[in-house]
Amino acid sequence: MSQLINFISQPWPWYVAGPVIALVMFSLLLLGNSFGISSNLRTLCSIFGAGKTCDFFDFNWRDQLWNLVFALGLVIGGFIAHNYLSTESHISISTATIAELKSLGISDPGSTIVPESIFNWKALATIRGFIILVVGGFLVGFGTRYAGGCTSGHAISGLSDLQIPSLIAVIGFFIGGLIMTHFLLPHLLTI
Amino acid sequence: MKFLRYLLVGVVFGIALTKAEVISWFRIYEMFTFQSFHMYGVIGSAIVIGIIFIQLIKRFEIKNVEGKSIIIPPKQKSLWRYLLGGTIFGLGWAMTGACPGPLFILLGNGITVILVVIGSAILGTYVYGLLRDRLPH
Q: Cα dihedral sign for A81, B48, A97, A189?
Protein backbone atom coordinates (compact mmCIF):
# COMPACT_ATOMS: atom_id res chain seq x y z
CA MET A 1 0.00 0.00 0.00
CA SER A 2 2.70 2.49 0.99
CA GLN A 3 4.55 1.61 -2.23
CA LEU A 4 1.42 2.47 -4.20
CA ILE A 5 1.07 5.77 -2.35
CA ASN A 6 4.72 6.59 -3.02
CA PHE A 7 4.18 5.73 -6.67
CA ILE A 8 1.19 8.03 -7.17
CA SER A 9 2.84 10.74 -5.07
CA GLN A 10 5.28 11.46 -7.90
CA PRO A 11 4.25 14.15 -10.39
CA TRP A 12 2.04 12.54 -13.05
CA PRO A 13 3.21 12.73 -16.66
CA TRP A 14 0.79 13.97 -19.32
CA TYR A 15 0.19 10.47 -20.71
CA VAL A 16 -1.27 9.39 -17.36
CA ALA A 17 -3.32 12.52 -16.64
CA GLY A 18 -4.89 12.76 -20.13
CA PRO A 19 -6.38 9.24 -20.13
CA VAL A 20 -7.62 9.71 -16.53
CA ILE A 21 -9.47 12.87 -17.66
CA ALA A 22 -11.05 10.88 -20.52
CA LEU A 23 -12.06 8.18 -18.02
CA VAL A 24 -13.72 10.82 -15.82
CA MET A 25 -15.75 12.03 -18.82
CA PHE A 26 -16.65 8.41 -19.70
CA SER A 27 -17.70 7.67 -16.10
CA LEU A 28 -20.02 10.69 -15.98
CA LEU A 29 -21.61 9.60 -19.28
CA LEU A 30 -22.11 6.07 -17.90
CA LEU A 31 -23.71 7.57 -14.78
CA GLY A 32 -26.24 9.33 -17.03
CA ASN A 33 -24.84 12.86 -17.12
CA SER A 34 -22.20 14.78 -19.00
CA PHE A 35 -18.89 16.41 -18.20
CA GLY A 36 -19.21 20.20 -17.82
CA ILE A 37 -17.95 22.00 -14.74
CA SER A 38 -18.88 25.62 -15.56
CA SER A 39 -22.59 24.72 -15.33
CA ASN A 40 -22.06 24.71 -11.57
CA LEU A 41 -21.56 28.49 -11.66
CA ARG A 42 -25.02 28.89 -13.19
CA THR A 43 -26.48 26.47 -10.64
CA LEU A 44 -24.90 28.47 -7.79
CA CYS A 45 -26.51 31.65 -9.21
CA SER A 46 -29.86 29.87 -9.15
CA ILE A 47 -29.35 28.67 -5.56
CA PHE A 48 -28.51 32.25 -4.51
CA GLY A 49 -31.90 33.35 -5.88
CA ALA A 50 -30.91 34.81 -9.27
CA GLY A 51 -34.00 33.16 -10.80
CA LYS A 52 -36.14 35.91 -9.25
CA THR A 53 -34.47 38.63 -11.30
CA CYS A 54 -33.47 36.71 -14.42
CA ASP A 55 -35.19 33.88 -16.33
CA PHE A 56 -31.87 32.32 -17.28
CA PHE A 57 -31.45 31.20 -13.67
CA ASP A 58 -35.07 30.15 -13.15
CA PHE A 59 -34.73 26.37 -13.32
CA ASN A 60 -34.85 23.47 -10.89
CA TRP A 61 -31.29 23.49 -9.59
CA ARG A 62 -31.88 20.26 -7.69
CA ASP A 63 -31.48 18.43 -11.02
CA GLN A 64 -27.91 19.71 -11.05
CA LEU A 65 -27.03 18.58 -7.52
CA TRP A 66 -24.93 15.70 -8.88
CA ASN A 67 -22.63 18.25 -10.54
CA LEU A 68 -22.21 20.24 -7.31
CA VAL A 69 -21.35 16.99 -5.53
CA PHE A 70 -18.79 16.37 -8.28
CA ALA A 71 -17.37 19.87 -7.62
CA LEU A 72 -17.20 19.09 -3.90
CA GLY A 73 -15.22 15.98 -4.90
CA LEU A 74 -12.79 18.27 -6.76
CA VAL A 75 -12.13 20.22 -3.56
CA ILE A 76 -11.63 17.00 -1.57
CA GLY A 77 -9.41 15.52 -4.31
CA GLY A 78 -7.25 18.65 -4.29
CA PHE A 79 -7.01 18.45 -0.50
CA ILE A 80 -6.00 14.77 -0.53
CA ALA A 81 -3.42 15.25 -3.28
CA HIS A 82 -1.94 18.29 -1.56
CA ASN A 83 -1.79 16.89 1.96
CA TYR A 84 -1.28 13.15 1.51
CA LEU A 85 0.05 12.52 -1.99
CA SER A 86 2.68 15.21 -2.39
CA THR A 87 6.31 15.18 -1.45
CA GLU A 88 6.97 18.68 -2.75
CA SER A 89 4.98 21.52 -4.29
CA HIS A 90 7.58 22.36 -6.94
CA ILE A 91 6.14 22.77 -10.49
CA SER A 92 8.51 21.51 -13.20
CA ILE A 93 8.07 24.33 -15.71
CA SER A 94 10.65 24.90 -18.45
CA THR A 95 13.75 27.00 -17.90
CA ALA A 96 12.55 29.38 -20.65
CA THR A 97 9.32 30.03 -18.69
CA ILE A 98 11.25 30.54 -15.45
CA ALA A 99 13.59 33.07 -17.08
CA GLU A 100 10.72 34.93 -18.75
CA LEU A 101 8.64 35.18 -15.57
CA LYS A 102 11.67 36.32 -13.57
CA SER A 103 12.12 39.18 -16.04
CA LEU A 104 8.47 40.09 -15.37
CA GLY A 105 9.14 40.36 -11.65
CA ILE A 106 7.82 36.99 -10.44
CA SER A 107 10.25 35.71 -7.81
CA ASP A 108 11.12 32.01 -7.85
CA PRO A 109 8.68 30.88 -10.61
CA GLY A 110 7.48 27.30 -10.17
CA SER A 111 8.49 26.98 -6.51
CA THR A 112 4.79 26.93 -5.56
CA ILE A 113 1.55 25.95 -7.39
CA VAL A 114 0.58 29.58 -8.05
CA PRO A 115 2.59 32.82 -7.81
CA GLU A 116 2.24 33.61 -4.12
CA SER A 117 2.79 37.33 -4.58
CA ILE A 118 -0.52 37.48 -6.51
CA PHE A 119 -2.60 34.70 -4.97
CA ASN A 120 -2.95 35.97 -1.42
CA TRP A 121 -5.59 38.03 0.41
CA LYS A 122 -3.40 41.11 0.77
CA ALA A 123 -2.79 41.24 -2.99
CA LEU A 124 -6.51 41.96 -3.48
CA ALA A 125 -5.82 45.50 -2.29
CA THR A 126 -3.26 46.03 -5.09
CA ILE A 127 -4.21 46.98 -8.65
CA ARG A 128 -2.39 43.93 -10.04
CA GLY A 129 -3.94 41.47 -7.60
CA PHE A 130 -7.44 42.93 -7.96
CA ILE A 131 -7.38 42.80 -11.77
CA ILE A 132 -5.95 39.28 -11.97
CA LEU A 133 -8.19 37.72 -9.30
CA VAL A 134 -11.43 39.70 -9.47
CA VAL A 135 -11.58 40.82 -13.11
CA GLY A 136 -10.00 37.54 -14.24
CA GLY A 137 -12.59 35.49 -12.36
CA PHE A 138 -15.40 37.62 -13.78
CA LEU A 139 -14.18 36.97 -17.36
CA VAL A 140 -13.99 33.22 -16.66
CA GLY A 141 -17.60 33.17 -15.44
CA PHE A 142 -18.99 35.48 -18.13
CA GLY A 143 -17.04 33.86 -20.99
CA THR A 144 -17.77 30.23 -20.15
CA ARG A 145 -21.50 30.82 -19.93
CA TYR A 146 -21.55 32.93 -23.11
CA ALA A 147 -19.60 30.19 -24.92
CA GLY A 148 -21.83 27.53 -23.32
CA GLY A 149 -18.98 25.61 -21.71
CA CYS A 150 -15.39 25.61 -20.53
CA THR A 151 -12.42 23.32 -20.97
CA SER A 152 -14.34 20.25 -19.76
CA GLY A 153 -17.53 20.84 -21.75
CA HIS A 154 -15.99 22.10 -24.99
CA ALA A 155 -12.31 21.07 -25.19
CA ILE A 156 -12.75 17.57 -23.74
CA SER A 157 -16.42 16.51 -24.21
CA GLY A 158 -17.22 18.55 -27.30
CA LEU A 159 -14.03 17.77 -29.22
CA SER A 160 -14.23 14.08 -28.23
CA ASP A 161 -17.67 14.07 -29.89
CA LEU A 162 -16.19 15.97 -32.89
CA GLN A 163 -18.58 18.90 -32.52
CA ILE A 164 -17.73 21.95 -34.66
CA PRO A 165 -19.14 24.54 -32.15
CA SER A 166 -16.70 23.21 -29.56
CA LEU A 167 -13.80 23.59 -31.99
CA ILE A 168 -14.78 27.25 -32.54
CA ALA A 169 -14.99 27.76 -28.76
CA VAL A 170 -11.55 26.22 -28.21
CA ILE A 171 -10.10 28.46 -30.95
CA GLY A 172 -11.67 31.36 -29.01
CA PHE A 173 -10.07 30.11 -25.74
CA PHE A 174 -6.69 30.33 -27.46
CA ILE A 175 -7.29 33.72 -29.09
CA GLY A 176 -8.12 35.14 -25.65
CA GLY A 177 -5.33 33.28 -23.87
CA LEU A 178 -2.68 34.30 -26.39
CA ILE A 179 -3.75 37.98 -26.37
CA MET A 180 -3.65 38.03 -22.57
CA THR A 181 -0.35 36.18 -22.16
CA HIS A 182 1.59 37.98 -24.90
CA PHE A 183 0.14 41.50 -24.96
CA LEU A 184 -1.58 42.24 -21.64
CA LEU A 185 0.01 40.13 -18.88
CA PRO A 186 3.52 41.58 -19.40
CA HIS A 187 2.11 45.02 -18.50
CA LEU A 188 -0.22 43.71 -15.80
CA LEU A 189 2.50 41.75 -14.01
CA THR A 190 4.82 44.74 -13.88
CA ILE A 191 2.31 47.31 -12.59
CA MET B 1 -25.88 7.00 -2.06
CA LYS B 2 -26.28 7.86 -5.73
CA PHE B 3 -24.27 11.02 -5.08
CA LEU B 4 -21.34 9.12 -3.60
CA ARG B 5 -20.33 7.99 -7.09
CA TYR B 6 -20.14 11.57 -8.32
CA LEU B 7 -18.13 12.52 -5.26
CA LEU B 8 -15.68 9.71 -5.98
CA VAL B 9 -15.25 10.64 -9.66
CA GLY B 10 -14.68 14.24 -8.55
CA VAL B 11 -12.02 13.16 -6.05
CA VAL B 12 -10.18 11.21 -8.78
CA PHE B 13 -10.34 14.23 -11.11
CA GLY B 14 -9.12 16.55 -8.34
CA ILE B 15 -6.15 14.29 -7.56
CA ALA B 16 -5.27 13.85 -11.27
CA LEU B 17 -5.27 17.59 -12.04
CA THR B 18 -3.25 18.37 -8.93
CA LYS B 19 -0.67 15.63 -9.55
CA ALA B 20 -0.31 16.54 -13.24
CA GLU B 21 0.18 20.22 -12.26
CA VAL B 22 -2.71 21.27 -14.53
CA ILE B 23 -4.04 23.53 -11.75
CA SER B 24 -0.81 25.53 -11.72
CA TRP B 25 -0.92 29.14 -12.98
CA PHE B 26 2.66 28.55 -14.18
CA ARG B 27 1.60 25.61 -16.40
CA ILE B 28 -1.11 27.71 -18.07
CA TYR B 29 1.34 30.56 -18.70
CA GLU B 30 3.82 28.05 -20.16
CA MET B 31 1.08 26.58 -22.37
CA PHE B 32 0.20 29.96 -23.87
CA THR B 33 3.89 30.71 -24.54
CA PHE B 34 4.39 27.26 -26.17
CA GLN B 35 7.41 26.64 -23.93
CA SER B 36 6.43 23.08 -22.99
CA PHE B 37 4.50 20.17 -24.46
CA HIS B 38 3.05 19.15 -21.07
CA MET B 39 -0.41 20.82 -21.24
CA TYR B 40 -0.85 19.92 -24.91
CA GLY B 41 -0.03 16.33 -24.01
CA VAL B 42 -2.61 16.29 -21.20
CA ILE B 43 -5.44 17.86 -23.22
CA GLY B 44 -4.47 16.14 -26.49
CA SER B 45 -4.30 12.64 -25.02
CA ALA B 46 -7.58 13.22 -23.13
CA ILE B 47 -9.25 14.13 -26.44
CA VAL B 48 -7.75 11.19 -28.37
CA ILE B 49 -8.85 8.67 -25.71
CA GLY B 50 -12.17 10.56 -25.42
CA ILE B 51 -12.80 10.19 -29.17
CA ILE B 52 -12.16 6.43 -28.86
CA PHE B 53 -14.58 6.18 -25.90
CA ILE B 54 -17.33 8.08 -27.74
CA GLN B 55 -16.85 5.97 -30.87
CA LEU B 56 -17.09 2.78 -28.77
CA ILE B 57 -20.28 4.11 -27.13
CA LYS B 58 -21.80 4.77 -30.57
CA ARG B 59 -20.53 1.58 -32.23
CA PHE B 60 -21.67 -0.76 -29.44
CA GLU B 61 -24.65 1.37 -28.35
CA ILE B 62 -23.43 1.32 -24.75
CA LYS B 63 -26.19 2.30 -22.32
CA ASN B 64 -25.83 4.31 -19.11
CA VAL B 65 -26.64 2.94 -15.63
CA GLU B 66 -30.30 3.86 -16.11
CA GLY B 67 -30.41 1.78 -19.31
CA LYS B 68 -30.77 4.82 -21.55
CA SER B 69 -28.72 5.63 -24.65
CA ILE B 70 -25.72 7.86 -24.03
CA ILE B 71 -25.78 11.13 -25.94
CA ILE B 72 -23.61 14.21 -25.62
CA PRO B 73 -26.13 17.01 -26.24
CA PRO B 74 -25.26 18.58 -29.63
CA LYS B 75 -24.31 22.24 -29.23
CA GLN B 76 -26.48 24.91 -30.84
CA LYS B 77 -25.12 26.00 -34.26
CA SER B 78 -23.61 29.45 -34.08
CA LEU B 79 -20.36 31.30 -34.60
CA TRP B 80 -20.40 34.43 -32.47
CA ARG B 81 -21.28 33.03 -29.10
CA TYR B 82 -18.46 30.47 -29.30
CA LEU B 83 -15.88 32.83 -30.74
CA LEU B 84 -16.69 35.84 -28.50
CA GLY B 85 -17.56 33.84 -25.38
CA GLY B 86 -14.53 31.62 -25.91
CA THR B 87 -12.21 34.61 -26.32
CA ILE B 88 -13.56 36.28 -23.16
CA PHE B 89 -13.05 33.05 -21.23
CA GLY B 90 -9.53 32.69 -22.71
CA LEU B 91 -8.59 36.16 -21.42
CA GLY B 92 -9.72 35.18 -17.93
CA TRP B 93 -8.12 31.72 -18.12
CA ALA B 94 -4.69 33.21 -18.88
CA MET B 95 -5.09 35.78 -16.07
CA THR B 96 -6.22 33.50 -13.28
CA GLY B 97 -4.39 30.43 -14.64
CA ALA B 98 -7.50 28.42 -13.87
CA CYS B 99 -10.59 27.20 -15.69
CA PRO B 100 -13.65 26.28 -13.59
CA GLY B 101 -12.49 22.77 -12.53
CA PRO B 102 -9.11 23.92 -11.20
CA LEU B 103 -10.85 26.77 -9.32
CA PHE B 104 -12.44 24.17 -7.04
CA ILE B 105 -9.31 21.99 -6.92
CA LEU B 106 -7.09 24.96 -5.94
CA LEU B 107 -9.39 25.60 -2.99
CA GLY B 108 -8.67 22.05 -1.79
CA ASN B 109 -4.97 22.76 -2.27
CA GLY B 110 -5.27 25.46 0.37
CA ILE B 111 -5.24 28.51 -1.91
CA THR B 112 -8.09 30.18 -0.01
CA VAL B 113 -8.04 33.48 -1.95
CA ILE B 114 -9.39 31.46 -4.90
CA LEU B 115 -12.80 31.85 -3.17
CA VAL B 116 -12.72 35.45 -4.42
CA VAL B 117 -12.08 34.24 -7.98
CA ILE B 118 -14.96 31.73 -7.67
CA GLY B 119 -17.18 34.54 -6.35
CA SER B 120 -16.28 36.78 -9.30
CA ALA B 121 -16.88 33.92 -11.72
CA ILE B 122 -20.37 33.42 -10.24
CA LEU B 123 -20.98 37.18 -10.62
CA GLY B 124 -19.71 37.04 -14.23
CA THR B 125 -22.15 34.20 -14.96
CA TYR B 126 -24.98 36.25 -13.44
CA VAL B 127 -24.13 39.35 -15.50
CA TYR B 128 -24.08 37.18 -18.64
CA GLY B 129 -27.59 36.01 -17.72
CA LEU B 130 -28.73 39.64 -17.45
CA LEU B 131 -27.17 40.72 -20.77
CA ARG B 132 -27.93 37.51 -22.65
CA ASP B 133 -30.72 38.86 -24.85
CA ARG B 134 -28.57 41.80 -25.98
CA LEU B 135 -25.49 39.77 -26.99
CA PRO B 136 -24.95 38.20 -30.43
CA HIS B 137 -25.49 34.44 -30.24
A: negative
